[in-house]
């Protein structure tokens, strides 16, 4: 009796809270995380920084205390900036992870609720169905044909049938429900579970590395050697000219610290993470960071129809029964009782019969709630209709079979009711009800029904056939055999209004939008046409067509196809593979447990936040929080923006660093005095490298970003002329800085003033160049300054910094600068502005 009561009510909220405190969270302890302090320390874990600090200490002993302190402070500030960046990135990624955390359906205080699995506790009742991941260890107390995949625990990939009566009734955390439904009572949670005992193994699953970050890291290594070589030359030449060895060593090391783009991979992570939070605002939750890079390359989007391209709000429009079509919109009514019984009994929607409003009383799959609403406007009548009926057996709906059946006991008699895709149900029918009498279903009659289905689905209706068999147990000749066909019901599911624009946007962006659906060919085509996905039925391929094609032939056919209808999840897998074989980067959506393999195979697997199952969510690299096609296109756009922005700051950082190195290198090979002191070099690094580069990472997109073709996935980040741009601009920055220094000397200014002019020219050229980096196609004069306030802010901070070291006497002493006169500024502005001006004229003439 107690069991019975608990079964209905579950734990009370209060009891659950008490138990959560007592037993702790339902989670597997994670591997150790770096503490904030360690994150801070790791900022200095760089060989060049150590060498710099060591040489600073040496110079300190030689009497240069002020210099040494300044260098240490600059290194510290740099470290703090790096720490803030890394810590914030880490935090926002953690927040994303908790959003993507698994959930479960638990009964508490008599209500079914979805909670984060971490809050589950011992004694909770959990509802399980196909696609769910079992959230803790427990015992199955109620269930219908529950099959569980326990391969994670046992390595055995065959599904295990669970039974409430015997020892097979145990279910284990981390296993997945393949089929059926059930209710489990939680017995063990967290580290106490079977999974907890082997948790150590799972902690070793590494987070996927971003391929771009990987490539930049290896590029970084090459650059390190290059920079070190140049710095060595600068040092040796300086010594050869009779400079002090210690001074020259410090100069070389400072140059190395400034010029080596050690922050590059880190900024890539920052900008990926920021992009991921932006995507979340647009309802796309990215589960795997590298997916962001791939998104921008997407060339085919394979989308489900129902709910993604359509509104998933079904309304029954037409019913075919007894050779006649009834149009419900015209007020025509169908009163065939057994037809209504089939559609209501063979239906998995949930009722809350205490509600008065029928819309609020029904929950579940819109295909099914629509059926109830078509016949019942009143909750009381519905209540009477379904009372005293017991479902003694069921074969749930499954997208492979495309039908479902139940056996209902009513007044001591058992009846089998079946509904599903018309051609599938008709295959199981031997009889038909006509004029209230049961007659054999001849092939002519079957043809007439299918013709009617054809015409209904041409009007974009999703069709379901209803059939039954009386006295099921007496006949006992097998379920779903020799059924009696009753009629067809056709529901409309209108396209999402915004989806049409998104489809057009895809086409403009060189992305193929493709619809994949379990629905009828005609229904699919009618919707696809309304959405401009295609306008010829030649672009429709059905599941049967796919069956008839070899993999090779399918590869050829997919190029033309825009709609795949009546497909099952297995076909989806073949479709992804075929598209990939043709060199496409495929994004593919899915919701059911059977879709997981296709989602895993796709370059970008997308699962549904609302209707998706745990298993598909876990297999996917992105979750659509609103199940909406438009969100996929938005995510692709963000993917492109992020990639573009990464190119922007790579271009900026590398050309600036090249400029710095060249200034020093050219001066040394031409036997000139050093244009900058070590501290000044470190200052340039601090003022120009950090904030402006990060601000470029959040730059708004170019207007025409979605009118470009998708980029090739194998394309290097330096492709499309980026290397040339960096080399040319870096060289010009170096030459102009040196020229400003030479002119200063030529005009007879003292060395300090000349150095200050060079320093300002170098910084200002970089701060101008950062705006140029915002676009690869437009010149600096065409870019709207105020669209990126972060960048404007960052540049203003950098300018204030340089003003401080020029005009505040204390800093002037520290950085060995001189307050510049107007004429000096003239030189600075000329040399820092000239390249951008010439470049703009060049871009203008080129266009
Ligand atoms: P997608 O979401 O991929 O666009 P879909 O939702 O249209 O596809 P399925 O859910 O696999 O595809 O449905 C395929 C067919 O199965 C439908 O056209 C319909 O005939 C039948 N069907 C759908 N839902 C049910 C149900 N609840 N009961 C019985 N038959 C159903």
- Radius of gyration, in Å, reads 34 Å
The third-level CATH topology of the domain at 641-846 is Calcium-transporting ATPase, transmembrane domain
Mean pLDDT: 87
Class of secondary structure makeup = alpha+beta
Instruction: Choose one word for the global shape.
Output: elongated
Report the helical percentage.
40-55%
Bound molecules: adenosine-5'-triphosphate
Question: Based on the structure given, which CATH architecture of the domain at 641-846 is correct?
Answer: Up-down Bundle
Number of helices: 34
The level 1 CATH classification of the domain at 641-846 is Mainly Alpha
Major pleated sheet: 9 strands, mixed
Strand content: 15-25%
| Beta-strand segment tally | 26
Q: Unreliable segments (pLDDT under 50, ≥5 consecutive)? A: 1-7, 202-207
Separation of termini? 83 Å
**CATH superfamily caption of the domain at 641-846:** Calcium-transporting ATPase, transmembrane domain
Tell me about this structure.
By secondary structure, this protein is an alpha+beta fold. Helices cover 51% and strands 17% of the residues. Strands 10, 11, 14, 15, 16, 17, 18, 19 and 20 form a nine-stranded mixed sheet that branches. It has an eight-stranded mixed sheet with strand order 8-26-25-24-9-21-23-22, sandwiched between helices. Strands 1, 2, 3, 4, 5, 6 and 7 form a seven-stranded antiparallel sheet that branches. The protein has 34 helices and 26 strands. Among the domains are: 284-311 and 499-627, HAD superfamily/HAD-like (Rossmann fold, 3-Layer(aba) Sandwich); 315-492, Calcium-transporting ATPase, cytoplasmic domain N (3-Layer(aba) Sandwich), CATH 3.40.1110; 641-846, Calcium-transporting ATPase, transmembrane domain (Up-down Bundle). The longest helix has 41 residues, at 629-669. The relative contact order is 0.09. The site of adenosine-5'-triphosphate has 21 residues, from helix 15, strand 15, strand 16 and strand 19. Residues 304-306, 365, 367-368, 397, 399, 402-404, 419-421, 462, 464, 516-520 line the site of adenosine-5'-triphosphate.
């Amino acid at each position: 009796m107690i069991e019975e009561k608990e079964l209905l009510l579950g734990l009370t909220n209060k009891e659950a809270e008490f138990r959560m405190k007592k037993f702790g969270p339902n989670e597997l302890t994670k591997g150790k995380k770096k503490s904030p302090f360690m994150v801070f320390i790791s900022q200095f874990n760089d060989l060049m920084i150590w060498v710099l600090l060591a040489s600073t200490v040496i110079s300190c002993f030689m009497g240069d205390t002020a210099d040494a302190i300044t260098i240490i402070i600059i290194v510290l500030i740099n470290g703090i900036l790096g720490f803030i960046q890394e810590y914030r990135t880490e935090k926002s990624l953690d927040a994303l992870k908790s959003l993507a955390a698994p959930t479960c359906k638990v009964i508490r205080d008599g209500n079914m609720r979805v909670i984060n699995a971490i809050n589950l506790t011992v004694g909770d009742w959990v509802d399980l169905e196909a696609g769910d991941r079992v959230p803790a260890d427990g015992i199955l107390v109620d269930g219908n044909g529950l099959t569980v995949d326990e391969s994670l625990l046992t390595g055995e990939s065959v599904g295990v049938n669970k039974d409430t009566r015997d020892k097979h009734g145990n279910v284990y955390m981390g296993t997945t429900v393949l089929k059926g439904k059930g209710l489990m009572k939680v017995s063990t949670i967290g580290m106490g579970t079977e999974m907890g005992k082997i948790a150590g193994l799972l902690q070793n699953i590494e987070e996927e590395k971003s391929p771009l970050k990987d490539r930049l890291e290896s590029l970084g290594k090459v650059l390190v050697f290059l920079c070190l070589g140049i710095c060595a030359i600068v040092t040796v030449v300086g010594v050869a000219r009779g400079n002090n060895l210690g001074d020259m060593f410090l100069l070389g090391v400072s140059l190395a610290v400034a010029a080596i783009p050690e922050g590059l991979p880190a900024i890539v992570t920052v900008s990926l993470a920021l992009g991921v939070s932006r995507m979340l605002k647009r309802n796309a939750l990215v589960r795997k960071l590298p997916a962001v890079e791939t998104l921008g390359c997407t060339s085919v989007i394979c989308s489900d129809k129902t709910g993604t391209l359509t509104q998933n709000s079904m309304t029954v429009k037409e019913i075919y029964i007894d050779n006649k079509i009834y149009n419900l919109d015209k007020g025509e009514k169908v009163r065939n009782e057994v037809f209504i019984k089939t559609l209501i009994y063979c239906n998995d929607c949930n009722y809350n019969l205490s509600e008065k409003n029928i819309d609020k009383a029904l929950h579940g799959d819109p295909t099914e709630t629509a059926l109830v609403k078509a016949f019942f406007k009143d909750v009381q009548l519905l209540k009477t209709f379904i009372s005293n009926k017991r479902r003694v057996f069921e074969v749930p709906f499954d997208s492979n079979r495309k039908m479902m059946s139940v056996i209902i006991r009513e007044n001591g008699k058992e009846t089998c009711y079946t509904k599903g895709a018309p051609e599938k149900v008709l295959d199981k029918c031997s009889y038909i009800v006509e004029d209230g009498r049961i007659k054999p279903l001849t092939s002519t009659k079957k043809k007439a029904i299918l013709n009617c289905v054809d015409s209904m689905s041409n009007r974009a209706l999703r069709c379901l056939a209803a059939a039954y068999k009386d006295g099921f147990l007496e006949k006992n000749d097998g379920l779903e055999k020799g059924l009696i066909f009753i009629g067809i019901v056709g529901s409309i599911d209108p396209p999402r209004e915004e989806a049409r624009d998104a489809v057009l946007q895809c086409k403009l962006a060189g992305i193929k939008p493709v619809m994949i659906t379990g629905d009828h060919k005609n229904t699919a085509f009618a919707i696809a046409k309304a959405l401009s996905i295609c306008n010829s039925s030649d672009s429709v391929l059905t599941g049967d067509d796919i069956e008839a094609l070899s993999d090779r032939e399918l590869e050829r056919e997919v190029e033309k196809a825009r709609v795949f209808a009546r497909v099952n999840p297995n076909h989806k897998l073949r479709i992804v593979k075929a598209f990939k074989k043709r060199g496409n980067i495929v994004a593919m959506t899915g919701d059911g447990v059977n879709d997981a393999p296709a989602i895993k195979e796709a370059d970008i697997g997308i699962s549904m936040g609302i209707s998706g199952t745990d298993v598909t969510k876990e297999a996917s690299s992105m979750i659509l929080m609103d199940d909406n096609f438009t969100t996929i296109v938005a995510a692709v756009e963000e993917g492109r923006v992020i990639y573009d922005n990464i190119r922007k700051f790579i271009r900026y950082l590398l050309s600036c660093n090249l400029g710095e190195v060249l200034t020093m290198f050219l001066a040394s090979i031409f036997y000139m005095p050093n244009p900058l002191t070590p501290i000044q070099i470190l200052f340039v690094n601090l003022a120009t490298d950090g904030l402006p580069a990060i601000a470029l990472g959040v730059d708004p997109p170019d207007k025409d970003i979605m009118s470009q073709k998708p980029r090739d996935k194998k394309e290097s980040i330096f492709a499309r002329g980026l290397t040339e741009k960096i080399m040319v601009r870096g060289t010009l920055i170096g030459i102009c800085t040196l020229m400003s220094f030479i002119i200063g000397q030529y005009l007879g200014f003292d060395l300090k003033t000349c150095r200050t002019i060079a320093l300002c020219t170098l910084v200002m050229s970089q701060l101008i160049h950062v705006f140029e980096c915002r676009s690869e196609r437009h010149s600096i004069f065409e870019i709207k300054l105020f669209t990126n306030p972060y960048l404007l802010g960052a540049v203003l901070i950098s300018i204030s910094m340089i003003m401080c070291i020029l005009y505040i006497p204390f800093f002037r002493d520290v950085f060995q600068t001189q307050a510049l006169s107007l004429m000096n500024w003239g030189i600075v502005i000329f040399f820092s502005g000239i390249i951008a001006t010439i470049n703009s004229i060049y871009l203008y003439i080129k266009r």
